[in-house]
């Protein structure tokens, strides 16, 4: 009979808010950097992902990103990411963010080749499926975002299903990226954006950013979203439209505010379509199984609520209706089986 923690670990999961670089296990990042003679700001894998604030996190993240140089590096890293999720949380499906413009020493075609090779190998070996969501780094210029999306469209692959917008929200309000998102929309790509996020020691995005993402950028889901709670009209708009929110808990790293826990609690109580994801699991020290376990502990969730969160993540995916329905049925059957063991 599984305990609640064991149920949280074993319940099948879909993740649609997970960043490629932030999910690379430290030992794999260290090995790739050493192979490419790229110095990292640590004395070994054990200290590579130690940081005290958001700025240090971004600096460490960008350093690891620049260490990836060749298709084989991307293939090795993404395989490790998918293997780690499967082994530490039973992640069956991922829509993985990656920022092409953060990888300064690789062309988009080369990184795409490597990522797709690693994804194909993981599906064959592990049964884990993955799709890619190239994401604009909003700390770079809107024109760089336009150029990135043009590259994505020019080298279109079925496994690349949409685009995102991430990094420090105050540095790049969503309206600045309307042109890039319009290009993506015309190409038939799905769209999401980090909006109304919270930061330790920094102002987060205001509630109006959510409506800007929906109305101007054409997003059909939002990543994070906690700060919409400051505006009842925005909450009502999102609830009426059934906008999925891909939320992430702080895990063991103190960079993210504990207030996020209460925000997620309130969003669930208000009936918003919330799902839970690991964000940057390796760098933030919380794998998918730990995220669910932590959520159950701090939010007081039981088996039924944890199972509902797993299904909500499936509902938030960009799979077509047939694939989503099949995955949901697969998850529901396994959730029922696990719950029946208790």
Walk me through the structure:
50% of the residues lie in helices and 14% in strands. The chain has 342 residues and is α/β, with parallel strands linked by helices. The chain has a single domain, classed as TIM Barrel. The chain has an eight-stranded parallel β-sheet. InterPro entries: A_deaminase_dom (IPR001365), Ado/ade_deaminase (IPR006330), Metal_Hydrolase (IPR032466). Its cofactor is Zn(2+). It comes from Ruania alba.
C-alpha Rg (nearest Å)? 19 Å
Shape: globular
Helix content class: 40-55%
Number of domains: 1
The tally of helices reads 15
Main β-sheet, spatial strand arrangement: 1-2-3-4-5-6-7-8
Percent strand equals 5-15%
Keywords: Hydrolase, Metal-binding, Zinc
GO molecular function: adenine deaminase activity; metal ion binding
Cofactor: Zn(2+)
GO biological process, one term: adenine catabolic process
Summarize the structure.
The protein is α/β, with parallel strands linked by helices and 342 residues long. The protein has helices spanning 4-10, 26-35, 45-48, 54-67, 71-87, 108-126, 142-154, 178-186, 208-215, 232-241, 259-269, 281-284, 288-299, 303-315, 321-340; strands at residues 13-19, 91-98, 129-137, 162-166, 190-195, 221-224, 245-248, 274-277. α1 (4-10) runs antiparallel to α13, α7 runs parallel beside α8 and α14 (303-315) packs antiparallel against α15 (321-340).
């Amino acid at each position: 009979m599984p305990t609640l923690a064991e149920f949280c670990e074993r319940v099948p999961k879909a993740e649609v808010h997970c960043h490629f670089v932030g999910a690379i296990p430290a030992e794999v990042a260290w090995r790739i950097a050493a192979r490419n003679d790229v110095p990292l700001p640590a004395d070994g894998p054990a200290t590579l992902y130690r940081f005290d604030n958001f700025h240090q996190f971004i600096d460490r993240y960008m350093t690891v990103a620049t260490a990836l140089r060749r298709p084989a590096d991307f293939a090795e890293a993404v395989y490790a990411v998918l293997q780690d999720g499967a082994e530490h949380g039973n992640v069956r499906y991922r829509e993985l963010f990656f920022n092409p413009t953060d990888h300064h020493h690789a062309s988009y075609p080369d990184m795409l080749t490597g990522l797709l090779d690693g994804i194909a190998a993981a599906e064959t070996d592990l049964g884990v499926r993955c799709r890619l969501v190239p994401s604009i780094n909003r700390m770079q210029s809107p024109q760089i975002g336009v150029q990135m999306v043009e590259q994505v469209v020019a080298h279109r692959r079925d496994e690349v299903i949409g685009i995102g917008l991430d990094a420090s929200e105050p540095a790049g309000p969503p309206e600045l990226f309307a042109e890039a998102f319009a290009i993506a929309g015309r190409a038939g790509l799905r769209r999401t954006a980090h909006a109304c996020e919270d930061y330790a020691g920094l102002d987060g995005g205001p509630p109006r950013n959510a409506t800007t993402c929906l109305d101007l950028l054409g997003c059909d889901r939002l990543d994070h979203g906690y700060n919409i709670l400051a505006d009842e009209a925005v909450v009502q708009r999102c609830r009426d439209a059934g906008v999925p929110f891909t939320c992430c808990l702080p895990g063991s790293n103190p960079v993210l505010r504990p207030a996020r826990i209460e925000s997620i609690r309130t969003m669930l109580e208000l009936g918003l379509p919330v799902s839970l994801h690991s964000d940057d699991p390796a760098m933030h020290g919380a794998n998918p199984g730990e995220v669910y376990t932590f959520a159950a502990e701090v939010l007081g969730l039981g088996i039924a609520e944890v199972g509902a969160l797993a299904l909500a993540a499936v509902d938030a995916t960009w799979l077509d209706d047939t694939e989503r329905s099949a995955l949901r049925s697969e998850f529901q059957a396994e959730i029922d089986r696990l719950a029946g063991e208790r």
